[in-house]
Amino acid sequence: MSLQDTAIGRPARAATGASDLYRAVWRWHFYAGLLVLPFLISLSITGALYIYRDEIDAWYHADLKRVAVQQADRIAPTAMVASALQVVPGSALKYTAPAHPDSSAEITVKTADGKSAVYVDPYSGLVLGALSDRSTLMWTIRYLHSLKYFGTYARYAIEIAAGWSILLVGTGIYLWWPRGQKGGVLSVRGRPQRRVFWRDLHAVTGLFVGGFIVFLAITGMPWSGVWGAKVNQWANGNNFGYPDGVRVNVPMSDQKLDDIAKTSWTLEQARLPETPNVQDGAAPISLDQAVMKFDALGLHPGYSVALPGRPQGVFTGSVYPDDLSQQRVIHLDQYSGEPLLDMGYGDYGPMGKALEWGINTHMGQTFGAANQLILVMACIATVLLCVSAAVMWWKRRPSGSLGVPPMPSDKRVLRGLVAILALGGILFPLVGASLIVMLALDAIFMRSRRFGGAAG
Predict the structure, then answer these.
(1) For residue 328, what is the enclosing H or E element?
(2) Are 337 and 226 in contact (CB under 8 A)?
(3) Which DSSP symbol is given to 270?
(4) For residues 388 and 202, is the Cβ–Cβ distance under 8 A?
(5) Best CA proximity match to 209, nearest among 50, 389, 49
(6) 3 state SS of 10
(7) Contact between 142 and 50 (Cβ < 8 Å)
(8) Partner of 418 at 20 to 30 A CA spacing, among 1, 230, 346, 431?
C-alpha cells in the first residue's frame, strides 16, 4: 500500500466510523421512542392536569370543598365528626382540618363497603356530601398518571419508560449535534408538508425540553415499584432518609405511617410509635384536645389527624404543604397528649431532603406559580415532541416496513453503545431487563430480514 493510499484510507475509515456510530445511536433512539412515546404523551397530559390539582379540584368539587366564609367560629372537630357519622355510619379514621377560611373539613370514615370521605361545613356542621375515599377528579388523574388502576406490572412499565426516556434524550442530543450544518439546529426549515419541517421541529423542541424530561424522569423514580422502594428502604435503613435517632426511648409498633395517611416519600417506611405505659381504665384525650395541642405546636393549617384505633395507638398529625420547611409529622400520646415524636423536613437525612425537594418540584410546588407554568409548558412541548416524531417517522418509513434505522456496518460500534447503555441498566434493574429484551427482539428482527432476503 502506498503512502497516498494510506492517507486516503484514514479519512475514509474515520468517516465510516462516524457514520456507524450515528447509525447505532439513531437505531437505539428509534427503539427508545417506540417504547417511550406513548407513555410520555400520557404522563405529560395527566401530569399537566395534576400540577393544578388544588385549583381544579376546588372548581370541580366546589359543592363539597368550598363553603361560605362566616364571622362565627368553627364548631369543634368532634362535632364535625359526629355530623359525618350521622350521614355515613361507621368509624372515624381521620379528620382533616380546613386549610383556608372557605374550605370544608374532611372526615374519613370506615364503613362496611370501604372508606368514605365526608365533607362538612366547619361553621354549621352541615354535611355537604360524601365520596369514596381518594375518588376525587385529581385522585383519578393521579392514578392514571401512575397507571395504578392497571396493576403492579403497569407501574413497572412506568419505571422502565422513565429510564428509557433518559436514553431517548441522550441519543437525541447526539443526533441533534450540528456537525457543521446551520439549518434545523435552532430554527425550523420548510413547511409542514415536508419531512424536514417535522425533523427540525422535533430536534429543536427536543433540545429545549430534553432537560425537563430527564429531570422529571429522575424525580419521578422515587415512586417506582422496584427502584423507588429499594432506595427508600436503603436510605431509611442507613440514616440517609428519616433519622432513626429521633426515636430513642420511644416504643415503636409494626404499623407504618403510610398505612394510615398519605405521607411524603421519605416517611413511607416510618413506623408509628406506641403510647407507653397504658394503664387499665385510663381515659384518652378527645379529638378536640388533640387538635388544640397540634395548633399549639404550630402545625401548618390544613393538617390531618389520624385517630388511634387501639389502646396503644397515637394521635398522628401530619401536613405536607408546598413549603417543604413546613412538612411535619407529630405523634401524641393518646392519654396525656404529650408529643412522642415530632419530625419535619429539617430532620430528614441528606438523601431524604434531596429527593423530597425533587418530588416537590416535580409536582410544581417549590417555586409557586412559576414552577407550575414552566412544568405545564414542558408537558405541552413533550407532547409536541412525540407528535413530531410520529409524523416524521410516518413520512420517512418505506411502504410496508417499520422503518427501523439501518444497522451499522461495524458491529463493534453497536456493541460499544450497548455496553454504555448497560451501565444505566445496572443502576435501574428494570431498565436493564428491558434492554436485554430489546436486544433479543432486535436480533430476531435482523435474522428474519436476512432469511426473508435470502428466500426472496
Answers:
(1) strand 328-333
(2) no
(3) P
(4) yes
(5) 389
(6) helix
(7) yes
(8) 230
pTM score, whole prediction: 0.86
pLDDT above 90 covers a percentage of the chain that reads: 49
Grid cell locating 79: 362535632
Chain centroid offset of residue 225 CA: 11
Which residue, chain included where needed, has cell 430528614? 348
Task: Among 1-10, 325-334, 407-416, name the most confident range.
Answer: 325-334
End-to-end Cα distance, the chain:
39
Taken in order 314, 353, 156, 43, the sign of the CA dihedral is positive
Location of C-alpha cell 420517512: 396
Helices (H), 401-428: 411-427
φ and ψ of 95, to 5 deg: -120, 125
- Does the pLDDT value for residue 14 go beyond 50? no
Report yes or no: 114 and 32 within 8 Å, Cβ to Cβ.
no
With contact defined as beta carbons under 8 Å apart, do 317 and 301 qualify? no
**What is the number of alpha carbons within 13 Å of residue 341 lying toward its C-beta?**
30
Rounded to an integer, what is the distance from CA 245 to the centroid of its chain?
A: 29
411-418, long-range: CB within 8 Å, 24+ apart, which pairs?
413/17, 413/20, 413/21, 413/23, 413/24, 414/20, 414/24, 414/27, 417/21, 417/24, 417/25, 417/28
Distance CA 53, CA 47 (A): 10
Q: For residue 449, what pLDDT is reported?
A: 61
Q: Which of 139, 85, 79, 78 is nearest to 116 (CA)?
A: 85
Res 246: pLDDT: 52
